[in-house]
Amino acid sequence: MPEEAALHQEPPVAGYPVSVTVNGKPRSLLVDGAARLLGVLRDELGLTGAKAGCAVGVCGACTVLVDGAPTSSCLTFAAQVDGAEVVTVEGLAAHPGLRALQEDFLAEGGFQCGYCTSGQLVTAASLVLSGELFGLSDADIRERMLGNLCRCGAYYGIVRAIEKAREAG
Ligand code: FES
Ligand code: FES
Fold this sequence. Notes:
The structure is a single chain. With 169 residues, this protein is α+β, with helices and mostly antiparallel strands. It is built from 6 helices and 5 strands. It folds into 2 domains: 16-92, Ubiquitin-like (UB roll), CATH 3.10.20; 94-168, Orthogonal Bundle (DNA polymerase, domain 1). Helix content is 34%, strand content 15%. The protein has a 5-stranded mixed sheet with strand order 2-1-5-3-4, with helices on one face. A hairpin with a 2-residue loop joins strand 1 (16-22) and strand 2 (25-31). Helix 3 (99-107) packs across helix 6. The protein is elongated and about 65 Å long. Residues 111-117, 150-152, 154 line the site of one FE2/S2 (inorganic) cluster. This is (2Fe-2S)-binding protein. Residues 16-92 form the 2Fe-2S ferredoxin-type domain.
């Protein structure tokens, strides 16, 4: 009878299935439709490198790579990354070509409190990984980094570190 059949129906799925590769590892997740990528990375996957700053896509503290493109994870719905490859700051160490970039941030003092640093590194890493960095002028580098704000004003060291990575080729 219909009422009895209704009692035996499976409950509705409480979320969207998402298959995503994060830092090289395949992940299968069930996410709320309103969940943002930043929250899923931090709260469900324990990847706390990306930071919540403005939460409205302005500061760049939450930047991760989605299919190689720097992306504000605070604005990105987790369901949007189904089938994508996501790289967070924790995943940069797996790329040998990015070690020098991170060392240059240390050597040049490209940070003070460090809150913006993961986002700065991820955006800079996208320039290295795409090969774009090696054709950029100093002014181009500053322009590409405009989406990453630093409240401590460590911009000189940040830009100098990226220039060093470019010079190292
Ligand atoms: S926290 Fe995402 S851009 Fe500021
Ligand atoms: S180092 Fe503090 S916000 Fe950039």
